[in-house]
Design goal:
Radius of gyration of chain B: 15 Å
Helix content of chain A: 10-25%
Helix content of chain B: 10-25%
CATH architecture of the largest domain in chain A: 3-Layer(bba) Sandwich
Protein name (chain B): Sarcosine oxidase subunit delta
GO molecular function, one term (chain B): sarcosine oxidase activity
Number of helices of chain B: 2
CATH superfamily of chain B: Folate-binding superfamily
Structural class of chain B: alpha+beta
Shape of chain B: globular
Organism (chain B): Pseudomonas cremoricolorata
Distance between the termini of chain B: 11 Å
CATH superfamily of the largest domain in chain A: FAD/NAD(P)-binding domain
Largest sheet of chain B: 4 strands, antiparallel
Strand order of the largest sheet of chain B: 3-4-5-6
Number of domains of chain B: 1
Oligomer: heterodimer
Number of strands of chain A: 50
Strand content of chain A: 25-35%
Distance between the termini of chain A: 96 Å
Radius of gyration of chain A: 37 Å
Strand content of chain B: 25-35%
């Protein structure tokens, strides 16, 4: 029998469209327009999950974002699995597959449930902290089982087939929420001509107007909604975003909206459509019309399936045509909740009784219920419910809300549905994301947004304005204000007429008293998703957790995917009463984005796979691909790492490349090195100030190596700079440091020395650089250039202009390998043609392309540092044994000089860069390995340094390394030891860091 | 995400285009060599950690590449003014009155 709880008529569902779906493997039917929760209730599905800690059966409580229990796993295939979907917000589609996220072997017969009942009292708050703390190493073991038992859903094991994207938008007025206040605001703002975005998290616009029994202009409220939406749709500057949750209110009116474009259509998005979209909106003004959440009362066994929010009952009856029971008992402290009983009665169902906590309620809705003959028990409340898998009865007793006492034994009323309403909590989340603390108002028994510097207007329920007519007026006025402040003319217009009602104040009631007292009464749940009870909160305060943030963390109140939307205010009230303070004294916890969970797909957007982040290729990239290069990421660059020949691994390829460079000639793509064009009459002076060495005497046509320090005297970049003209230099930087160095130069020029006439331009991408290195590089280059390469005409550390491969080039005679080298720079778009000519000519010299790994090895053989590998931001030039590169007598106190003259920098036992030669020439010292003087010292040993670069495969024929050792420069020939994780010890001799050609005879020929 | 008015470009742009470079108005000592170690250490490492009005150095790094100063309230994240290097702030902690804030609005809304 299908849909036994579907009413014969009513609701906004399309009964002609039957949709099949499955829940926990069983097939059911619902209608188009249903939420998954509505369809489950229509089929009489009571239990949707098991609770977090006690494994109690749980049913649907609410109808929207605040739902704590109906958190389901969705997905018909492995790739489309989505965890923790609120059934109340998931539209039903044909073929939907849902399962409970917890419960073993299934939710109806749960093994843990029996344990929970027995063990419940043995799991006080802080149970996990108290129980699983020791031994520490066991946490990994505990965690696995705790997670399995907790049932928080699971992520898919296959790639998501759907695509997601971002959209950046600007608007004059962003309106959050499309209930009465939001729609009125949208009308006002839209009519003024402002660019408006109206976003609502529900499937349809209208909010509470979709299910209210109230009329507008004497007609169903939904008719007015339709007319407003039609008017807004006709406005060219208005964007309507249904199924779009505004999740974050960030600085300077930047809001993020999570739009679910196809979640209502099927298990995955139709071909060519985006599943979710994140709108990043900058709004001149924001109108928050987020409304309010109904607050449940806290009473014994209030978690048994069949206990629901009063308002949710109205939603299911009026919007979906579903009756989640037959016999209703309602417990309330306010007038509004009476609508649930009236709706229930109008649907032809039985209202057993209404328990009203107030002494003598006389509001219009109360009188309407009386007139229909509904039994009303005043000064009363449901103090506990009965039932295992579903409610079978409610115990109603007289209570004293001030003394917090039960004043009569009460009576058990037979029922299968309990409605509960403890008032309303304005949805202040977005209003509080930027730190604005909400303010308590006794008259509405709720927190409303406090003052905030943001340019926003709060309207309707969020302000505690609940009466329909007032909410419409408040919304319209707010819309006018927002549009006017955004620079548009105010508009006027008439709002639909509402029926005036006499309304009576509610009475403060959060936790309902029980004759047994909180600790002994049946469990009174405050946060159902985390199984936090009133007793647990009282215990936490008794144990000294008095700050609201501490209570939250100790009990897990408000931790779940619902972030305490239902439970938090009740929890605060209970903690406050337990400590004898007021709710405002207790205060709220911080509200943080996001308002509701967001899928990882939406967060990632298009930033997936090969477009996860930008990639930079050199002009020669396709040649590298053709020549079988393995690539290394250097910053965003793809650089050839090594060029393996068939059968070669990294080590054999690198050893071959190294030997080929030393024996004949090698080719490196050095295009990624940062290149900064520096021009201006003060360029030379500027270089004097930012480099450690002197630039005054560098003639045109010459090049020099320079070290750059920060003010603390520590090295942060290096490179060769060439003098193009007296007022023109080309600076090279490390590949990774290019942007940082340019920013650094600009910083000093703009903020410290604006009087210097000098200009910086990044030309990294404009030039391609091919380095020819090795004894045959001169002979090879001579075949493709018209430049005179004679050693006297073109000596070491100079540069020449001329043609290479038929195009204009700048050739620098500098060397990073210790070999005779030429760096050929040509305009990047000519590079491939030049390269082909060089390669053709290079055949007879066994020209060998090499990558970054061989470059690293060859420079290390020569003792050249790599900033960032051999330095770590705490090494000054002296530490690197590079005092030769420091001009201590330059007239201007250049950047780094004062820093490196600090007392600590002048110590002689600082860690200094040295060469390390393993005594066993086959042993490789791992980079980063610590060095000690005495390997037999008990742990913890005194560490004297560490390895920074280490290469076992090279042109030398033995393993060598560079490293830093305390006072190492005075310890040449001594031994240090590197204890390894496997217990072995590598012994190494401290040697000069220059392993190859210490006199420089190879590079200067 | 902050919305920052670049005084060089003359436009409000999103924080993504900018890079924060710490406290503003930290002048490099004119004669570093005459500084004691302590004075130099103070210049290099010590910065205010204010609650309220704070002057910061920003770089429009993905825009015009120019540095400029920002007066920002560290509590509310409001940006009260932006001004070029070499200029003095119009809004300071002592004189943070609406009258001085009016200068801000000459450059459009500082939303």
């Amino acid at each position: 029998m299908s849909q036994t709880y579907r009413l014969s008529s009513g609701g906004r569902v399309d009964r002609s469209k039957v949709l099949n779906f499955t829940f926990n493997g069983k097939s059911y039917q619902g209608y188009a327009g249903d939420s998954l929760a509505a369809a489950l209730l229509a089929n009489g599905v009571d239990i949707v999950g098991r609770s977090f800690k006690y494994s109690r059966p749980r049913g649907i409580i609410a109808s929207g974002t605040e739902e704590p229990n109906a958190i389901l796993q969705l997905g018909a295939t492995e790739a489309t699995q989505i965890p923790n979907v609120r059934a109340t917000q998931q539209p039903l589609y044909s073929g939907l597959v849902a399962t409970s996220t917890n419960g073993w072997p299934n939710v109806n017969t749960d093994v843990m449930g029996i344990l929970g009942k027995v063990g419940g009292s043995m799991m006080p708050p802080g149970f996990y902290y108290k129980t699983f703390m020791y031994p520490k190493s066991f946490w990994m073991t505990y965690e696995k089982y705790i997670r399995k038992a907790a049932g928080l859903g699971r992520s898919p094991l296959q790639n998501d087939p759907d695509s997601y994207d971002y959209m950046n938008q600007h608007c004059d007025v962003l309106i959050v929420g499309s209930g009465p206040a939001g729609l009125a605001a949208a009308l006002a703002a839209g009519r003024s001509g402002a660019r408006v975005i109206l976003a609502d998290e529900q499937e349809e616009f209208g909010g509470s107007l979709l299910d209210t029994r109230e009329t507008l202009d004497g007609k169903p409220a939904a008719d007015w909604v339709a007319s407003v939406i039609a008017e807004l749709q006709a406005m060219p500057e208005v964007t309507l975003l249904p199924r779009a949750t505004v999740n974050g209110y960030h600085d300077h009116n930047f809001l993020t909206i999570h739009e679910r474009l196809t979640d209502h259509l099927g298990d995955h998005a139709p071909l060519g459509q985006v599943r979710h979209r994140v709108h990043r909106v900058r709004a001149k003004r924001v109108v928050l019309a987020t409304g309010a959440h109904e607050r449940p009362l806290v009473y014994g066994n209030n978690d048994v399936p069949g206990n629901m929010l009063a308002g949710a009952i109205s939603v299911y009856v009026r919007r979906y045509g579903v009756a989640p029971g037959r016999k209703l008992v309602l417990s309330t402290n306010n007038d509004h909740a009476y609508r649930a009983a009236l709706d229930w009665h109008d649907a032809g169902l039985q209202v057993v009784a209404i328990a009203d906590a107030r002494h003598n309620p006389r509001g219009s809705l109360v009188e309407e219920a009386r007139a229909k003959g509904i039994r009303i028990l005043t000064s009363s409340a449901i103090i506990e419910s009965r039932g295992t898998k579903h409610v079978t009865g409610a115990r109603v007793a007289a209570i004293d809300t001030v003394a917090h006492k039960v004043t009569s034994p009460g009576e058990w009323l037979e029922c299968d549905l309990i409605g509960t309403s403890g008032g309303y909590s304005p949805i202040v989340h977005l209003a509080s994301h930027l730190g604005g603390r909400p303010v308590w108002r006794d008259d509405i028994l709720g927190f409303v947004p406090g003052d905030a510097p943001q340019k926003r207007v709060c309207v309707g329920g969020i302000n505690g304005v609940y009466a329909l007519g007032d909410a419409l007026a408040d919304g319209f006025e707010g819309g006018v204000r927002a549009a006017t402040e955004a620079g548009f003319q105010p508009t006027t217009g008439s709002l639909p007429k509402t029926v005036a009602r006499k309304e009576e104040a509610s009475v403060a009631l959060f936790q309902v008293p029980h004759d047994k007292g909180t600790a002994r009464a049946p469990k009174q749940f405050v946060d159902q998703q985390n199984d936090v009870t009133a007793a647990a909160i009282e215990l936490a305060t008794r144990e000294g957790f008095e700050s609201v943030e501490h209570v939250k963390r100790y009990t897990a109140l408000g931790f779940g995917t619902d972030q305490g939307k239902l439970g938090n205010i009740n929890g605060l009230a209970i903690a406050a009463r337990s400590m004898g303070i007021t709710i405002p004294q207790m205060g709220t916890t911080m509200f943080r984005p996001n308002y509701t969970p967001v899928t990882f797909g939406a967060v990632a957007g298009r930033h997936c796979g090969h477009i996860f982040e930008p990639v930079r290729f050199t002009a020669l990239h396709s040649w590298h691909l053709k020549n079988n290069a393995e690539f290394e990421d250097v910053g965003q660059w793809k650089r050839p790492w090594y060029f393996p020949k068939p059968g070669e691994d990294l080590h054999t390829a690198v050893e071959r490349e190294c030997k080929a460079v030393r024996a004949s000639v090698g080719l490196l793509d050095a295009s990624t090195l940062g290149k900064i064009d520096i021009q201006g009459p003060d360029a030379r002076e500027f270089l004097n100030r930012v480099y450690t060495n002197a630039w005054t005497k560098l003639d045109v046509g010459k090049a020099r190596y320079g070290l750059m320090c920060k003010e603390d005297g520590m090295v942060f970049d290096d490179g060769v700079t060439a003098c193009v003209a007296d007022n023109h230099f080309i600076m090279t930087t490390t590949t990774g440091g290019a942007a940082r160095v340019l920013q650094w130069l600009e910083l000093y020029h703009q903020t410290e020395w604006p009087e210097l006439k000098v200009y910086f331009t990044s030309v990294t991408d404009h030039w391609a650089t091919m380095t020819l290195s090795g004894p045959n590089s001169r002979k090879l280059l001579a075949e493709v250039t018209d430049i005179d390469l004679d050693k006297d005409a073109f000596p070491f550390m100079t540069w020449k202009e001329g043609n290479v491969g038929g195009v204009p080039a700048r050739v620098f005679r500098i060397s990073f390998t210790g070999e005779l080298s030429y760096e050929v720079n040509v305009q990047a778009n000519y590079a491939m043609g030049v390269l082909e000519k060089i390669v053709e000519a290079g055949k007879k010299y066994n020209l060998t392309p090499y990558g970054t790994e061989t470059m690293h090895v060859l420079r290390a053989e020569k003792g050249f540092i790599i900033v960032g590998q051999d330095t770590d931001g705490s090494m000054n030039p002296d530490d690197l044994n590079m005092s030769w590169c420091v001009g201590r007598n330059k007239p201007f106190s250049w950047i780094g000089l004062r820093g490196m003259n600090r007392e600590d920098c002048l110590r002689e036992d600082r860690k200094q860069l040295v060469g390390l030669k393993p005594v066993d020439p086959k042993k490789w010292l791992p980079e980063g390995a610590q060095l000690v003087n005495d390997p037999n010292q008990p742990i913890p040993m005194d560490m004297v340094g560490h390895v920074t670069s280490s290469y076992a495969f090279n042109s030398l024929g033995y393993s060598f390394a560079m490293g830093v050792v305390k006072g190492g420069l005075k310890r040449m020939g001594e031994r240090v030891y590197s204890p390894q994780a496997d217990g072995s010890v590598i012994e190494a001799e401290i040697v000069s860091s220059v392993f190859f050609d210490p006199k420089g005879e190879q590079q200067n020929v | 995400m902050l919305h920052i008015f670049c005084p060089h470009c003359g436009e409000l742009r999103s924080e993504e285009e900018f890079h924060a470079s710490g406290q503003a108005h930290i002048a490099r000592p004119l004669d570093p060599n005459s500084c004691t170690d302590e004075e130099w250490g103070t210049y290099m490492f010590f910065r205010d950690n204010l609650r309220g009005i704070h002057h910061e150095l920003w770089d429009h790094v993905a825009g015009c590449r120019q540095y400029f100063n920002v007066t920002r309230n560290t509590e509310t994240y409001e940006i009260l003014e932006t001004y070029k290097i070499g200029e003095q702030p119009k809004v300071t902690a002592r004189e943070n009155t609406p009258a001085t804030s009016a200068a801000v609005n000459e450059r459009g809304e500082n939303v």
